[in-house]
Write a structure and sequence with these properties.
Fumarase C, Chain A, domain 2, L-Aspartase-like, cytoplasm, histidine ammonia-lyase activity, histidine metabolism, 2 domains, lyase
Length: 502
């Protein structure tokens, strides 16, 4: 993935990348608005002002919301309508989102509004930008979004703070929204026509979760290939199965890439074997790594493209077209594209853990490995890696439950006006859990592969040597039983920190 190298990210609504979202979210990169974006925001705002002045009947501007879309709101109540919208819709439940997710949501909403199709005032958009830049992070509960009509409840909690309401975190302290704004040198605003709807009618909660999941998923895929290569060496596997000739005749891009990476990691290894030297074929969990890991790569590429498009999309309603003067009510807030993407990626990432657990079993089972049972020299007195495989199996089973797709569910809402919803935010939330679980399983394989390598002799491959050296810098070989959870957590941190082999 392309990395964000500048500490300032300019948003114009069209060119935001997933890496830039991750940098804003995790590295606190600052946001600025492109001059052309500000001009477009002013143009769409002028449309709203004209509609209010002329008392046009337009959804969400001079009417109620959802089932109340046929209720016309008097001109003197238009501002109160927007504030009521935020107050009434801020009804999320559950634990709050981590700060990185909140920051990603804010950045994505700013970018969507910067396209100039939403009718928000410039000063309102600038307040949201400055909240993100100065570290005023609204407390946003994780539960409550149906993923159609956008992420209404989560985004309403974000906007509460802009009104001096709700709660926010500032410099590590949780306080009222009003106090957080004051501490950062900012003042609350009063929303005007269309602004409340413009701020909360969008897919930014699910897309924020997906952006971070896509970033994390990429590193996990790369690490899965090098860890699998270590297991191949530990079990004297046959790299001929990764020969380019084989993968050209089934030319899935991900499969070819994983095969290429495996050969690169194993280059120069003295631990692998030729066909027929020990066995004619390896088990599927070794031989079919390119096909399994590669399919995950292809899924990731599809999701990366879909999420990138969503990062730069207009997802509210109605949408204002200043060039034609049209105001169109549609369904761009519907999260189905992200819901399917999240479910798809969760299934693909879970398979990395699924096949990894099978390789762990081959490492610890002496009937399959030819190594000491459970990778300990004093089996019986010591249990070695016995229970690490239990843990991996437990986590893999949990992922299988989580991979039931949220996107196939729909519960009608708003008196059946909103009669099909995406559940995309639920899909994206559980995707993050699946990725976290997969990291844990790969961390266990990493530990076990390094331990198995210690029982053998011979030079390691170019990539596997680097990965082996990395883990041995912080985790020594297991010579007698110790609290394995400490090693497992340390290995998990290594994987979570980025690519083992840059």
């Amino acid at each position: 993935m392309k990395k964000c190298t500048s500490s300032m990210v300019q948003l114009d609504g069209y060119h935001l990348t997933i890496d830039e979202v991750a940098a804003i979210a995790r590295e606190f990169h600052q946001i600025e608005l492109a001059p052309e974006a500000i001009q477009k925001v002013r143009q769409s705002r002028a449309m709203v002002e004209d509609m209010v002045t002329n008392q046009q009947v337009v959804y969400g501007i001079t009417t109620g919301f959802g089932k109340f879309s046929d209720v016309v709101i008097p001109r003197e109540d238009v501002s109160q309508l927007q504030e009521n919208l935020i107050i009434s819709h801020a009804c999320g439940m559950g634990e709050p989102y981590p700060t990185e997710v909140v920051r990603a949501m804010m950045a994505l909403r700013i970018n969507a509004l910067a396209k100039g199709f939403s009718g928000i005032r410039e000063e309102t958009l600038l307040l949201l930008k400055e909240m993100c830049n100065r570290g005023v992070h609204p407390i946003i509960p994780q539960q409550g979004s149906l993923g159609a009509s956008g992420d209404l409840a989560p985004l309403a909690h974000m906007v509460l703070v802009m009104l001096g309401r709700g709660e926010a975190e500032w410099k590590g302290t949780r306080m009222s929204g009003k106090e957080a704004l004051q501490a950062a040198g900012l003042a609350p605003i009063r929303l005007e026509a269309k602004e409340g709807l413009a701020l909360i009618n969008g897919t930014q909660a699910m897309t924020a979760l997906l952006c971070l999941a896509v970033a994390d998923g990429h590193a996990l895929i790369e690490n899965a290939d090098v860890i699998a290569s270590m297991t191949i060496e530990a079990l004297h596997g046959i790299p001929k199965a990764f020969d380019p000739q084989l993968h050209v005749v089934r030319p899935h891009p991900g499969q070819q890439e994983s095969a290429r990476k495996l050969l690169a990691h194993l280059q120069g290894s003295e631990r692998t074997t030729a066909q027929g030297e020990i066995r004619v074929q390896d088990a599927y969990s070794l031989r079919c790594i390119p096909q399994v890991h590669g399919a995950t790569r292809d899924t990731w590429a599809y999701v990366h493209a879909a999420v990138t498009r969503e990062c730069n999309s207009v997802t509210d309603n109605p949408i204002l077209f200043s060039e034609t003067g049209d105001v169109i009510s549609g369904g761009n807030f519907h999260g189905q594209p992200m819901a399917l993407a999240a479910d798809f990626l969760a299934i693909a990432i879970a398979e990395l853990a699924n096949i990894s657990e099978r390789r762990i079993e081959r490492l610890v089972n002496p009937q399959l490995s030819g190594l000491p049972g459970f990778l300990t020299e004093k089996g019986g007195l010591h249990s070695g890696f016995m229970i690490t495989q239990y843990v991996a199996a437990s986590i893999v089973s949990e992922n299988k439950v989580l991979c039931h797709p949220a996107s196939v569910d729909s519960i009608p809402s708003s008196a059946n006006q909103e009669d099909h919803v995406s559940m995309g935010t639920t899909a994206a939330r559980k995707l993050r859990t699946v990725i976290s679980n997969a990291v844990k399983v790969l961390a266990i394989e990493y530990l076990a592969a390094a331990q198995a390598i210690d029982f053998g002799k011979g030079k390691l491959g170019a990539g596997t040597q680097k990965a082996y050296a990395t883990i041995r810098q912080v985790i020594p070989p297991l010579t007698e039983d110790r609290e394995m959870h400490l090693d497992m957590h340390q290995a998990e941190k290594l994987l979570a920190s980025g690519n083992l082999v840059p």
